[in-house]
Structure formats: structure tokens, C-alpha cells
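Justification of resources, computational component.

The compute hours requested in this renewal are based largely on the per-chain cost of generating structure records like the one below. Each record pairs the submitted sequence with a full C-alpha cell output. That output is archived, and it is also reused by downstream analysis tasks.
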Amino acid sequence: MKEDIVKQNSLRAWILAARPKTLTGAAVPVMIGLALAYSDIRNDNEALLADFYTDPSFNWLSALLCLLFAFVMQIDANFINDFFDYAKGTDNIETRLGPKRACTQGWVSLKAMKHAIAATTVLAAIIGLPLIFYGGIEMILVGLVCMIFCFLYTTNLSYMGLGDVLVVVFFGIVPVCTTYYIQTGSVTWLTLLASLCCGTVVNSLLIVNNYRDRDTDREAGKMTLIVRIGDHASRMFYIACGALPCVVGTVFCFVGKPLAFVLPLIFLIMHLTTYVKIRKIDKGRQLNECLGETARNIFVYGLLVTLGILL
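The structure output for this chain reads:
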């Protein structure tokens, strides 16, 4: 009951709007990219570092900047999602099934949210700009693409059923490969494969979210992939997003990192347990419990893969 009493534009309101729990999803791809880079640098792979003209040692400052950039961009995406879904009428108090949103609840005014979106976008640019010194001028392009699609996701692409593709790209390929590139000056096939696995696992969170909202999304004209493929296929899609990365993870056994395959099997058990709960609940606000479990599972996956690579 206390959450309903939030003073508009207060510190508590902004903390709720930022959705701190979602930051784990932003951290996981950076963690995996850093683990792969640290492992390869530690092993002094001469072929990998052949074109790396600076001192081939792990750079903790650039690692921190990558993590901070991911966090701020996630908060920016949350603000954008909060603002536009309310402005377009997709979110309203009567029909919303998911966790409460700041604009919908009146915790943050639309004017204040506009200013917050501008501020977090600028902050992300300030944090990301120094990465030019580590990854080259191409980091500007990477940052711009992230910011542009941050807006396009909520305003257009998620309504077209392209949200799942964007999650794989921007919570998998882009952060994992870019983080690795900044540390090493190149991208290996293993890094690309790990990034695809990471993005696929993170996408399971979007699946639960859209599965819960499938009826209201359909009524609002938001044709997510879940709305398009139906209930049964959606549940199978959820299983696949957890199982396929673990199957593909067998490649770690052939590159001297067997624990990076073995440890995530713990995640797979957790993932399948959550699936059983999703199937049992099927509809309604109770699926928010599965949403929370899925977020936890994703973080466990990232942590286990990271540990497996490093150990």
C-alpha cells in the first residue's frame, strides 16, 4: 500500500521510475564481454592481439565506463518507455497488468519525464565519449545507434513485433562485442557466439512481459511477436531462449573453458522451473512473479557464464 503514496517528482518517484531491478539485465552482457576479454588477455593470445597496438593489459577504467554507460542507457530506455507508453495510451491504471509505472501513476509528470529523458541521454553521451580513447572513433557510431534505437524501440519498433530482435542485438551482440573490442581491439567468433547466447537469454524477460500483456497489447494495436505467434508458440519460445544458449554453450568445452558450459546448466533448471509456473498461471498480474524470477535467472546466467570463463 505504501507504494501508492508517492509524492510527485520526489526522489522516491525517480527511483521507482528508473526501475533499479532492470539494471541486472544491462550488467550481464558487459560482464560476459569483460570476462572473455580478461581471459584472453590473461592467456596472452598473440594471434588475438596481433593488431592491438597499445599495452595488451586489461583496462579497468574502460571496463567501468562500459558498465556505467549500460546502466544509464537502461535507465534512459526505462524513462522513454514510461513516457511514450503512457502518452500513446498503451499504459493506463485500469488495464495495466505489469509493475506500476511512474507516469501512469502520476508519480512523475510528463514534463519532468521529458527533461529526465534529455538529461539521461546527455549523461550517457558524456560517459561514453571517453571510450573513443580505448575503442577508436567508431565508438561514436555505436553510441549513436544505441541512443537512436532506444527511442525507436518504444515509439515504433516494439509495436511492429521487432522488440525481440532489438533485445538480441542491443542486450547481446552490441554490448558484449563492443566491451570485448574496447579491451582487445578485435572481436572473435567465440565472443560473437557468446553475445548471441546472452541476447537470447535476456530476451526471455521480454517474452514474459509481452506474454502477460498479450491481450491488452492486441487491443491497443501493439503487435508484439507474442501477439503474432500465439500462446503455445510463445511458451515454446520462452523455453528455447533458455535452452538453446546452454546447448550452444557446449563450444566452451572445445576451447578450454568447460565450466562456462557446465555452470549455466544450473540456470537452465531455474529457467525451466519458471516456465512451469508461467504455464500454470497463464494470465494476469500473477505473471509478474515469473517476470521477477526471469530477471533473477538472467543475472544467474550472466554470473555463471562469467565465473565459468574466468575459472
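The longest helix spans residues 60-87. Residues 46-55 have pLDDT under 50 and may be disordered.
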